[in-house]
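Two records follow; treat each independently.
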Amino acid sequence: MTKVSTDDLATRFGTRAVHAGHIPDPLAGAVMTPIYQTSTYVQEGLGKHKGYEYARTRNPTREVLERNIAALEGGRHGFAFASGLAAVDAVLKLLSHGDHVVSGENVYGGTHRQMTHIWARYGLEFSFVDAGDAGNVAAAVTPRTRLIYAETPTNPMMRLCDLQAVGEIARDANAWCVVDNTFATPCFQRPLELGADIVLHSTTKYLNGHSDMVGGVVVVNSDDLAERIGFIQNASGAVPGPFDCWLALRGTKTLALRMRQHDVNGRRIAEWLTKHPKVQRVYYPGLPSHPQHDLACRQMKGFGGMISIELGSVERARRFVERTKIFALAESLGGVESLVGHPASMTHASVPLVMRRAMGLTDSLVRLSVGIEDVDDLIADLEQALDAAG
């Protein structure tokens, strides 16, 4: 368990991104956190050590990352995991057989798969609702509901969840409110400040920002929750290696700068796409035409670089994603480079077809992760690919 000091919470976001959680290296005074590439630690005698016994339990590089991200989220305790799905897994391990979860229907496909194909087999029950309407969430709560799970904005339909309203519903139900904040990042949205109990991320995405590691993180304020999640982290052992932690920590230092450019590029491209005759619909919370734009303006400080577009046919979508030159056809998102994906066959292929159709996730939907390249080059690439798509 890594706890954040009050000093880490006092500074502004850009300063916290660079400095929070860091402690000067005691050996040489290194400015950058060293990579403690070790599995175990020498003990001076039985029961006498420097706080470190075995690296699954504690690692100095990992602890700095945990403190850093916790501070960015305005939380007190951070826990790093080997992947975003390992973070989801740890949170669901807070529950017991027979407990009920209300989840947004439009969550990452891997999250939905883990809930329905793994945890449902062990006796957890799930209700999937359109969490864009808090009334749907409230209606799905039962006396056995112990957790309400939301992504906002959602992947890939860019729906929003009213975090204050859902947080109140969770408190009234004596349940935990869990928010996947991967798309917005703490740069643009801090769910703990809006009523969430637990925030999680795939650090693979924007927090790292360079598409060169895989990881996850969970942040909480409650000491009781921290003790439980810390136990699960150590007992289950799905921890990241020190080098991956170091890579993510390097990424968070530039998070404020990168997100600013992702946001500038995302807004410009989303607006341009709304005027393109071959694009039938644009999903982006920063557009005034988005049905939840007012909510986005209230609970977000920026809208980021994730955009989904409806192209009308799977053939047109296929031609489009195969003809972009700067936008690379690849899984994942949130890196400095622009990516394009086809959710129905990639990130959300495991979601049942009926459920995909119900939420509007068609075979002709394309998702863009807008990077930090020159925006005019990105627009030119999209334009030639749309022209080629027919």
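The next record belongs to a different protein.
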Amino acid sequence: MRLLKALVPLSLLVSMSVTGAPEKPRIQSPIERITSHVYRIGTLIVDTAARTVTAPGSINMDKGSVEYLAVTPRGKTYESFLRLDVQPMYLNLALILIGCKSKNVLQYQGQNKTPEGAPVTITVHWHNKFGIAKEARAEDFLTLMPGNHPMPPHPWVFTGSRILPQGYEADMVGSLVAIWHDPAAVMDNPLPTGADDGWVVNTARTPPQFTPIHVVFKAVG
């Protein structure tokens, strides 16, 4: 809990009172301790024992070209496979809490350079039309054109976005997980083909658009 207090403003964790003065209204904390190793950070559930972060969202695109695996509702939803209802800074914090370290070596979008950072697997969970629980790796939903080459299984990397004079870049642009390299995103695709912009949704594997999902990020190693 000491780490949480160091990373979150004190005003968000406690309310103060002054002798002889009415107590100030309590501010709802974005962080809640659920058990000894499970926390809620905004809409995220963080399990420091399992080293997982679970995020809610939906299928944003069930066909077409994509440059992002996931964005927030304020992000580039016209080119993202998933829409996650999370705040990027909270995802950054959650990944740190499960032991991940970020490293952003990218300077611009589409740069032909291998992103670095802690490896993290990404799994999508949903229920089909019969109510049966399903899950698949994020890579299963993507193919590269021309040639319809499936994305091979691999961990993604925690790049961490950038702190700009205006603020945390991922919060400003809503970029969470990039397929086509993007220094603004919290996470990126480390494959050499991450510099290619020919990625499309694998319609044969993808649930219908707007299907509710949750995504599990799990630290590797």
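Discussion point: The CA atoms of residues 96 and 102 lie 8 Å apart. How would you locate this feature using only the token line?
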